[in-house]
Amino acid sequence: MTTPAGFEPDDIYCVLCHAPAAGPCATCRALICADCSVLTGGAVKTVAVCTRCHGQGRGVVGWRAWAQVSWPWLVGFGVLALVAWWLATR
User: Do residues 47 and 82 both lie within one domain?
Assistant: First the structure.
């Protein structure tokens, strides 16, 4: 099967606005243009995520990403340590 002259496949266009894509989203890997992306990240690593992922909070990288995952564990271990200390002093 041959393609007509001048035909460009749809996969090089932004999935949100169908403009020419600049690159993939760092989170969902969908092709996005510069207008539909948000630069996010820390001091060392800056990534571009699509506006859908950014709106859902999935474009977080670096220490902020680990803090969202680890703080419930740290609070849980702190409560367990407090209960163990309280039981040991009774």
Answer: no
Please state the length of the chain: 90
pLDDT tens digits, one per residue of 1-35: 444 455 455 568 888 888 889 889 888 888 999 99
Instruction: Give the total number of structural domains in the chain.
Output: 2
Residue 23 one-letter amino acid: G
Q: What is the pTM of this model?
A: 0.54
Q: What 3 state SS string does 27-49 have?
A: CCCCEECCCCEEEEECCCCEEEE
| Residues near 6 by beta carbon (within 8 Å), at least 6 away in sequence | none
b/e burial code for range 54-82 (CB count within 10 A of at least 16 → b): beeebbbbeeeeeeeeeeeeeeeeeeeee
